[in-house]
Protein: Eukaryotic translation initiation factor 3 subunit A
Amino acid sequence: MSTFAKPENALKRAEELINVGQKQDALQALHDLITSKRHRNWQKTLEKIMFKYVELCVEMRKGRYAKDGLIQYRIVCQQVNVTSLEEVIKHFMHLSTEKAEQARSQAQALEEALDVDDLEADKRPEDLMLSYVSGEKGKDRSDRELVTPWFKFLWETYRTVLEILRNNSKLEALYAMTAHRAFQFCKQYKRTTEFRRLCEIIRNHLVNLNKYKDQRDRPDLSAPESLQLYLDTRMEQLKIATELELWQEAFRSVEDIHGLMCMVKKTPKPSLMVVYYAKLTEIFWISSSHLYHAYAWLKLFTLQKNFNKNLSQKDLQLIASSVVLAALSVTPYDKTHGASHMELENEKERNLRMTNLIGFNLDPKSDGREVLSRSSLISELVSKGVMNCVTQEVKDLYNLLEHEFLPLDLASKVQPILTRISKVGGKLASASSVPEIQLSQYVPALEKLTTLRLLQQVSQVYQTMKIQSLSKMIPFFEFSVVEKIFVDAVRQNFLSLKVDHMKGVVMFGSQGLEADGLRDHLSILAELLNKARTQIYPPAKKSSKLAEILPVLSETVDKEHKRLLARKSIIEKRKEEQEKQLLEMEREEESKRLRLQKLTEEAEQKRLAAEYEQRKNQRILKEIEERELEEAQAMLQEAEKRGKKKGKKPIIEGEKVTKQSLLELARTEQMRERQEMEKKLQKLAKTMDYLERAKREEEAPLIEGAFQRRLVEEKVLHEREHQQEVELSKLRHEGDLKEKHRLSRMLENKNIFQERVLSRRQSEYNRMRAEAREQLEQLKKAHKEARDAKRKLLYYLRGEEVRQRRAREEEEARKHEEEERRKKEEAERRAKLDEIAEKQRQREREIEERARLQREALLGKASEPKHVDFGGARPSEPQTAAPAASAAAAAAPAPTPGKYVPKYRRTEGSSQAPPSEPDRWSSGRADDRGGDRWRSDRGGGARPTTWSSSRTR
Structure:
């Protein structure tokens, strides 16, 4: 942070930095001076510094710096010279506005220059490319790059100034002027979002002003000048809100104005109140609050009539007609019929706010609808003489709608009057707050009112009417619109009718005795009959009967009162049940409508997305085709121009031109032209060779003569320049000698200074060298420690790797040993199985040999049976058993190798010797040879008779 003894020094330093292009440093220097506590006494130099400071802030768009500087400057000159602060702020806003306008004009000029760059081309290539990539136009880009930053800075400027001046009673006029300029900024550039924020800022300033009433420089709203400034600001805010069509913000502005008027409890000037009620009429008309719109017109008419001395009779008549038509446009029934308690409370609160804004003070506990209603408004118009100032058409319309009973001709008589009224209107010369009035805005509401009056009168005369006849009687709308109108009226209990579309009729009234029509007729009939009876039979005047009737009358009144209370409770319960049913039905309908709306929206979104993609693809294809066609046409025009220059006919005539065909033609044309050009160049080169040879033969002697003359001239010039150089050298040598004698006196001092500088540099060098060595040693030490730590880590990692490798090798060796042992056991088991199989094969061969011998014995090939002893038969066994056994064996079917033989098949061959239970054994492994089946004879021998195996022999 730089410090200056005097403010002038800071200003000079800032100007020097600005001249060398260091604006940021200059701004920082001025900022340090302004925020310093040394310079808190105001002087004229500080004002100059602030002017330069805000200029730099605006030029560099430093809003935060500007705000800090202005706050500090306000502290300095608040009690001494407030005018200086006002001048600085005005200069600040002027510079910001000027920069924004320059950026806007520059952007417009740039856009215009870009637009007229090429009159034949519609768009530039870079604009097309940027528009396809970014989807924005050139004006949008120029606004974003040039205009938007300055507009943001201007908006920040207004906010900063309003924040600085919000609690300063000495600068109220500047605060109001800044607010007005900010409003104009929002209006000029259609900045609705910034306008809402600005209104909220001003509203918060007023709230804080009322909240903190003990501040020293707080503005006093009870003063007429302060109140007038605040009201003017709110009025301007109201005007801009209505011009930007921000109706919610306009309503809040009206509430702000009403709050100010209630705060000071003083009626403002009539000119302001006229503007106030004129804007209220617009707001209430937009919000469809026709009753309060009519009351606002009545207030406006009263003010104009009482305080506007320049009001002409024509303008007064037009304003009065607007008041009456606004009153007639109010719906003749209350729209809150059948509403819930919560809705009624909300409507009551809303009506209370509206009436307070208009200027009617109502008691919140009472019902405001009793005071502000259509009937009371019309009676007030009549009593105040407003009907005497209106045009004849409005008077006729009022009489027809409010006093005449014409159920069949009402619409036909009202229609021409409405046609004439719709043409009435124009600008008002003497009422500045209401520049223009058009009575045509009330025609739709009056047509609806005419339809309601016609239906009301027809329902009193007819019970049924055809829909076709009713449609002819109402020329304003189609019957579907009329149906919506009277459905709303029936819902609000204004009419009682039904529509039967199957029969094509409308049925008016209800069949009950409590219907409005029948009740009125019956009451009138009863009154007339009572009058006739009293005239025929006048009552006798006896005072004694009154005393007899009074006790009975009181009992009758009590009974009737109880009956009415019970009936009222029953009616309330029925209403509540009906409301619950209606709410349930409405909820169901709303849920169905939401589901249907969601499905419709999803389908619509899908359809729009598909259409968008289709249009996008078509647009791209169309642009490609157009671009190719333009290129082809350009090439065709160029080819025609070349052909016209050469005197040739057009290339293509009477056929469709395409880019490919033109490219082929252009290529052939170029080849032909290139060949012609090469022939011309060869001929020209030959001609140029002859010409060049002749030129060189002629110019050779001339060049030689010129060269000899140039040698002589250069020799003379060299000698002259050499003589001049010698003389100049002598003069310089004499001057150098004089300079040497003059400087020789300072040689000793020079040597002393040189030794001092060298010694200081040597010591500095030695110190830096020692420091460098020390740093080097420290780095070496740190590197050594890091290297040792790295080596230890590597040693640990390598040991861990060796241990893991050894563990893997041991695990692999163990698995290998287990595999070897398993293979050895498998080999031994297979050897045993092979040995068993060999024994079985030996037994098979013995059995076959024995069977062969038995067959030979049976066939008689041997004279006596041979006895072969296999070691299996006993010596004491009789020899007759062998033939029997062999016969049984021959009779039994021979077993098939590898096939299972069931029991019932095994016993078929021999009925005398049933086989014994077979002995089965098998192994669990997949390579076992199967099981054996053994059968023993009854003789008690252990001789095997039958053996079968699944193994192939």
